[in-house]
Fold:
Amino acid sequence: MAPNPAIMQAVEKLGYRVTIGDVATEAGLNIGLATQGLLALASDAGGNMQVAESGDIVYEFPRNFRDVLRNKYLRLQLQEWWKKIWKVLFYLIRISFGILLIASIVLIYVAIIVIITSSKSDQENDRGGNFSGGFFYLPDLFWYLSPNYDGYRQRNRREKNELNFLEAVFSFLFGDGDPNVNLEERRWQEIGAVIRNNCGAVVAEQISPYLDDIGSGYSQEYEDYMLPVLTRFNGQPQVSPEGEIIYYFPELQVSASEKHRKTLSNYLQEFSWRFSKATSGQLMLSGGLGVVNFVGALILGSLLTDGTIAAQIGGLVGFVQVIYWLLLAYGTGFLAIPLIRYFWIQWRNSKISVRNQQRQVRSNLLASNDPNLQHKINNASQFATEKVIDKEDYVYSTASDLLTQEVERSDEIEAEWRRNLEEGGM
Structure:
């Protein structure tokens, strides 16, 4: 069984000494997966299990356990190498769209100039005169490379931006990824933290602000939405003396070290999609170049309607004629994709806003100091407990053999007896 990256990260964050509840809370994992993952990681990375008198187990790992795994698993080495290679490849993919835009503009307008110049030369030669001047105006496509661009850059320096122009073109086209790609991970991490902050015992109203659909009618009344939470963290429902349902989670009540109460938001908040991280100036520049490219493609298409022109001129013009429909498709897509994405983002953000509002309403109910709800929460505290397993608490560890541990434990008991005897004699 390959080590779970989420468990490895959780172990490092928690100081290399953890319980199943620690890892399940930190990584937002199912208790069963956390148990299996910790056992597999301890076996593969040389970790030790420390068993307390209560039967609770603490897992302790060497700080270089990643090196141990890396030497043991070729697959992990290949994954790390691929991550580095993919990072470079993805960056090249991102900047390629900006490079293609510039290349497309250059090809289109150079071809237009060549066609017009050739046509005018032929006309002047037919009339026996000289061609001078021209009516075609080529926009300054690369104005941002000129000294004037410094003033533009100074004006936008106040805007926080980490994208260069080529990266901004990709961001203009495709955005910067899903802001909620780790939403489920955050959801279960925050739910686990809520349970931990309440010493392993909660009521449904404390969890509902972190869930999406809690149902309606009997489904909501009977708190069916708590079933996935109970399944994930191995929770148990209990009934208080007043008939209220309390949920407590034994595994999350045990920790390998003293934990500070985590500061959490009142409800799970989904982040709105952004059109782009690029500055407004970069977006205008990308859009403007897209328009220049598209208009140039239309002009070039009108000049190439006579198929004999490209055949007569040949060279670059002939090549451009061959790939003309690719250039036109790229120019159209460059403007159409961001436009479609803009309206899609508006629709997506409206859905996100509704879900955030629903969760916020539930959190407001929790903060309303309703007497009945507060009484229910107070009853839940009867099941709350926190158990910290210190290094002095365990009776057995896989770090050494059982006989050695029994001898060490006998020595400790004898030393403690002698100290008490001496203190009593004094």
Summary: The radius of gyration is 34 Å. The chain is about 60% helix and 5% strand.
